[in-house]
């Protein structure tokens, strides 16, 4: 504080160094000798200390050991440069009238740049320390908002009075970078739909909605059309892929006889949670399954959904037919008891 500074000026009239904020913390960490601190903490632990102090010393020693083992310098824990996302991850689009639509992160970066430039200008002008201290605090608040705007007591808000989305919010949650893009992705030759019962099917058959089948087998349909007289007419091929030509259903039925599909119901708890079926075309938007395959899937018909996957290679198709087909999995692999019971 100011009073402490005046007191030190009287004790050290020849001058002393005083730092505050992140600069002060970085200065303390810079002068830290981890090996010496490790020895002193060990020596202190060997002496008779109270239980509460002993736990505190052990926690400090664990942190010191981790820093020594990693080879990191403690002063590197203090940020002196802010990483900037690539432009493709924070796009900006020009609208009519010269206005721009931009992501929230750009606004947060802009605040940091403006406040940093203003602080630099004040330092060059030789502004009083009280003004510089206030500017440094505002710069720190701008950096805090970039990292985690939602945790601030008064978050920075946009024009619509909505808190701006910071970097941490882009990472966490169901729609964050980790769960949406890294832990799971949309893949080709797959689909998902609600299941309904269809007792008319055979045990090894399933009903695929026509719209889903067109999308699943789209490359195969195009390949078949290429060998016909329609190969030079893109408009006719697009019409066929929309199901507007009767010939496309004949092609689909031929393809389905040679390509089984895999049905998976989450949670996938054992190997019978994924089984192979011969697909048949059905109307509507739901996948049809035989009632006797419900038990291994632990499925019912109150809104359950199943994922569809299309094996492509000859080896995958053979494996699906020989090992994963529903008629070949009527006994439990755990105890040998029958699963396909009415």
From TrEMBL:
Reaction(s) catalysed (UniProt annotation): RNA(n) + a ribonucleoside 5'-triphosphate = RNA(n+1) + diphosphate
InterPro entries with a match to the protein in the record: DNA-dir_RpoC_beta_prime, RNA_pol_asu, RNA_pol_N, RNA_pol_Rpb1_1
Record's keyword terms, sorted: DNA-directed RNA polymerase, Nucleotidyltransferase, Transcription, Transferase
UniProt GO MF annotations: DNA binding; DNA-directed RNA polymerase activity
EC main group: transferase
EC number: 2.7.7.6
RNA polymerase N-terminal domain span: 75-342
GO CC, one annotated term: DNA-directed RNA polymerase complex
Gene Ontology BP terms: DNA-templated transcription
PANTHER family: DNA-DIRECTED RNA POLYMERASE (PTHR19376), DNA-DIRECTED RNA POLYMERASE SUBUNIT BETA (PTHR19376:SF54)
Protein name per UniProt: DNA-directed RNA polymerase
Organism annotation: marine sediment metagenome
């Amino acid at each position: 504080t100011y009073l402490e500074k005046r007191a030190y000026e009287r004790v050290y009239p020849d001058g002393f160094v005083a730092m505050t904020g992140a600069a002060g913390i970085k200065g303390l960490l810079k002068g830290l000798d981890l090996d010496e601190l490790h020895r002193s903490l060990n020596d202190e632990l060997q002496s008779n200390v109270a239980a509460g102090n002993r736990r505190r010393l052990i926690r400090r020693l664990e942190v010191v050991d981790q820093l020594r083992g990693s080879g990191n310098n403690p002063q590197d824990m203090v940020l002196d440069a802010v990483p900037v996302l690539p432009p493709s991850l924070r796009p900006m689009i020009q609208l009519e009238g010269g206005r721009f639509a931009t992501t929230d992160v750009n606004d947060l970066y802009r605040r940091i740049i403006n406040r940093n430039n203003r602080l630099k200008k004040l330092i060059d002008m030789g502004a009083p320390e009280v003004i510089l201290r206030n500017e440094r605090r505002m710069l720190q608040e701008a950096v805090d908002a970039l990292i985690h705007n939602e945790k601030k007591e008064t978050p920075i808000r946009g024009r619509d009075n909505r808190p701006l989305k910071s970097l941490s919010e882009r990472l966490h949650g169901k729609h964050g970078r980790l769960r949406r893009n890294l832990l799971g992705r949309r893949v080709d030759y797959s689909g998902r739909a609600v299941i309904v019962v269809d007792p008319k099917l055979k045990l090894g058959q399933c009903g695929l909605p026509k719209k889903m089948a067109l999308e699943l087998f789209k490359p195969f349909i195009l390949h078949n059309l290429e060998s016909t007289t329609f190969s030079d007419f893109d408009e006719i091929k697009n019409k066929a892929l929309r199901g507007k030509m009767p010939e496309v259903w004949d092609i689909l039925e031929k393809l389905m006889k040679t390509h089984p599909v895999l049905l998976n119901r989450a949670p996938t708890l054992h190997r019978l949670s994924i089984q192979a079926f011969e697909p048949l075309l059905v109307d509507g938007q739901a996948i049809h399954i035989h009632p006797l395959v419900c038990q291994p899937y632990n499925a019912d018909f109150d809104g359950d959904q199943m994922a569809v996957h299309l094996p492509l290679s000859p080896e995958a198709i053979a494996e699906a037919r020989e090992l994963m087909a529903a008629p070949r999995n009527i006994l439990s692999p755990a105890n040998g008891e029958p699963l396909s019971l009415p």
